[in-house]
């Protein structure tokens, strides 16, 4: 593929879009169980409009584009009103869960708190990546069968060299919420910071009342929690590229910034890793929050929990067990006999994009509002796939965190090759 001599017409370009996306997972049809967090059509259209309306404005410069400050500061304040209603919060807007983690860990590193991160093994690989990029060490603590770490073991692993203890609300693999209050209280007594990764739960858990369940406590109001990150492009229902990171102390926020002077091009000040980025992500996040309000989020939480509970009941009919006690629609389910890869393959053949995990072998679900409409079809297909998997237990299939694996071993070389492939045109 070379740059063509002449350009395509707009209609030709649109036709090429359709062709390029022909094999994309049908998330609009509710077939994806990760990666796309949908809201009702009227809401999503408005969010898309905001993202497109501000696609070219550059959030690198709030001086040139005051709209940046308007949207980012109000989104930060609205998120704080949900996850830190009674505490001071010093926030930044970032491009996603991974960048929020990276920026938070820089804040801990640059306030001289040590250079080691301590966390349950279930914390997102974004922390491992941050440790790699920032030159920090990592201590991973195992979790029990319920997906939770032992509080004493976690605290014993932390010491004066510890930059932060990192917990999740909830963790991605099992959807369970770490023992945040217990850890944070004792960490505070020892002067150790606690970051809570609420990428998934930040704009979901606080609304659980609407689904008849008590909301777990995880934000800056929990004594000892020193920072929390919340993704707007997950259950905040914004467009991709939006997250908020809140610190309990202004010093941490200052240390998290990258600023420099002396460059011939002028002064440089960035609140995150990325340079140029669209104001559209913040405009879309602002739109998502303002258009839903507390009641809108609560309704969507009630809808998602209704679907998640029905799926769990359907899985239980076939002998599946949900791991631990996940409060959200994010959960894993294991089976004592049925081969999970075979089942995931049989579901894949029926057009479902369902992740699998190996510790233990389990199906992984992230439930979205759109899934309410496909619940019956899912459960019917599950019944058929269960009998396929029993008949053909060696059938291989499934996805690992969105990476396609059809049998074989997932080692680092395979993953590098998988990334190489992304940049190789397929024709
Ligand atoms: C708990 C948790 N933290 C962090 C992330 C990373 O977020 P992102 O992919 O937006 O960088 C995810 C993504 O699923 C997550 O589930």
Produce the secondary structure layout:
Blueprint: H1 10-20, H2 41-53, H3 66-83, E1 90-94, H4 97-109, E2 116-120, H5 125-134, E3 137-141, H6 151-157, E4 162-168, H7 180-189, E5 194-198, E6 227-231, E7 243-247, H8 250-256, E8 258-260, E9 268-270, H9 280-317, E10 321-322, E11 330-334, H10 340-349, E12 355-358, E13 361-366, H11 375-391, E14 399-400, E15 403-404, H12 412-422
Parallel strand pairs: 2-3, 2-4, 4-5, 5-6
Antiparallel strand pairs: 1-7, 6-7, 8-9, 10-11, 11-13, 12-13, 14-15
Helix pairs in contact: 2-9, 3-9, 4-5, 4-8, 6-7, 9-11, 10-11
Helix/strand/pairing class, anyone? alpha/beta
- Let me know the number of strands: 15
CATH class of the domain at 48-289: Alpha Beta
Q: What is the helix/strand order? A: HHHEHEHEHEHEEEHEEHEEHEEHEEH
Strand content: 5-15%
The radius of gyration is: 22 Å
Strand order of the largest sheet: 1-7-6-5-4-2-3
In whole angstroms, how far apart are the ends?
8 Å
């Amino acid at each position: 593929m070379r740059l063509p001599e002449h350009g395509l017409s707009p209609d030709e370009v649109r036709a090429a879009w359709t062709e390029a996306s022909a094999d994309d997972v049908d998330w609009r049809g509710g077939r994806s169980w990760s990666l796309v967090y949908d809201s009702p059509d009227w809401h999503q259209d408005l969010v898309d409009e905001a993202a497109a309306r501000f696609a070219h404005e550059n959030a690198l410069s709030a001086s040139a584009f005051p709209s940046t400050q308007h949207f980012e500061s109000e989104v930060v304040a609205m998120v704080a009103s949900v996850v830190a209603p009674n505490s001071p919060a010093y926030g930044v807007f970032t491009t996603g869960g991974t960048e929020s983690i990276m920026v938070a860990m820089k804040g801990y590193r640059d306030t001289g708190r040590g250079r080691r991160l301590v966390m349950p093994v279930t914390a997102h690989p974004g922390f491992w990546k941050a440790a790699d990029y920032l030159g920090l060490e990592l201590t991973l603590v195992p979790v029990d069968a319920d997906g939770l770490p032992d509080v004493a073991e976690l605290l014993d692993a932390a010491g004066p060299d510890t930059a932060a203890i990192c917990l999740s609300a909830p963790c991605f693999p099992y959807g369970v919420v770490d023992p945040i209050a217990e850890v944070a209280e004792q960490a505070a007594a020892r002067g150790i910071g606690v970051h809570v990764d609420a990428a998934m739960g930040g704009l979901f858990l606080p609304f659980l009342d609407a689904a008849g369940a008590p909301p777990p406590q995880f934000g800056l109001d929990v004594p000892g929690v020193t920072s929390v990150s919340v993704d707007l492009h997950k259950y905040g229902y914004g467009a991709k590229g939006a997250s908020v990171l809140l610190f309990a102390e202004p010093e941490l926020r200052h240390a998290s910034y990258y600023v420099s002077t002396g460059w011939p091009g002028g002064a440089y000040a960035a609140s995150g890793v990325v340079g140029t980025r669209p104001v559209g992500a913040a405009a879309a996040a602002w739109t998502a929050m303002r258009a839903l309000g507390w009641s809108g989020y609560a309704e969507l939480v009630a809808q998602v929990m209704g679907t998640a509970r029905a799926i769990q009941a359907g899985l239980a009919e076939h002998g599946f067990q949900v791991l631990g006690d996940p409060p959200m629609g994010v959960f894993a389910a294991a089976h004592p006999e049925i081969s999970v890869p075979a089942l995931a393959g049989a579901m894949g053949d029926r057009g479902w994009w369902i992740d699998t995990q190996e510790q233990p072998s389990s199906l992984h679900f992230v439930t979205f509002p759109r899934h309410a409409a496909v619940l019956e079809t899912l459960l019917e297909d599950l019944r058929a796939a269960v009998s396929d998997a029993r008949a053909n237990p060696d059938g291989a299939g499934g996805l690992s965190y969105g990476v396609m694996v059809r049998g074989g071993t997932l080692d680092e070389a395979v993953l590098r090759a998988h990334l190489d492939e992304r940049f190789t045109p397929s024709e």
